[in-house]
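[Meeting: bench + compute handoff]

Bench side (C.D.) handed over the final construct sequence. Compute side (W.E.) agreed to return the predicted structure before the next meeting so the bench team could plan truncations. Sequence as handed over:
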Amino acid sequence: MTLSASSPVGIFDSGIGGLTVVKAIQSLLPFERIIYFGDTARVPYGSKSQVTIRKYALEDTGILMKYQPKMIIVACNTVSALALDVVEQAGRGVPVLGVLEAGAELAVEHSRNGRIGVIGTRATMASNAYPFAINAINPEVEVFTSACPLFVPLAEEGYTAHPAASMIAREYLEKLLEQGIDTLVLGCTHYPILKTMIGEIVGPEITIIDSAEAVALKARELLAENSLLNVSGVSAFPHLLVSDLPQKFKALCELFLGQEIPDVELMEV
């Protein structure tokens, strides 16, 4: 498959979380065409088995490959942790970026005291992929993790400032704060939707690493290296695909991206 600068960037996630990556890519690379697939029929991935996650990753990649992307971004930390190799194989030579590695690199870069906290889904935290990725960069760093399974449904429902959400977040984050961390990785692309609330709880002295922003920086670097940056000067709205509830997704998109969007296409999985 011939890759060209005008080819789209393919992005997938289990639901609306990957829109944080879409937003970051749009901000940093405004002329890139984006194809986004949100697997809304099977969200969340974080509570599923590794076998199921790998099966979903293969199917999601297959959907994006129909659009001949020049790059695939796995906007799902669970897939990044457990099935990145599946995406690479199915991508047949198309460059693949996972949010996990990008987030790990940025966290090590920002930490001053070498104590990093990571929050994510149960599957991502159980995989130990973040501690492994962080310690591969710097073995001296201590990594403390906490699974936050209720954050995905809260983000999907748009409960970004609800008192119940704040109470749950406090419960999840307390034990990490006790460890004296100075950096917190949002190890799930749904979590930046709750970033303001998380920031209020952890305080300004803790640097929050948004893996969506980290992967956008990495994407720009990789596209530039391969002379694949789109410099057309024309920006296009992302082509949005979902596996269920397109109207609900469209409403959440508009709330999240802050603009009206064209119709969302329904795909079978």
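W.E. noted at the follow-up: The chain is about 45% helix and 15% strand. C.D. will use this when planning the next construct.
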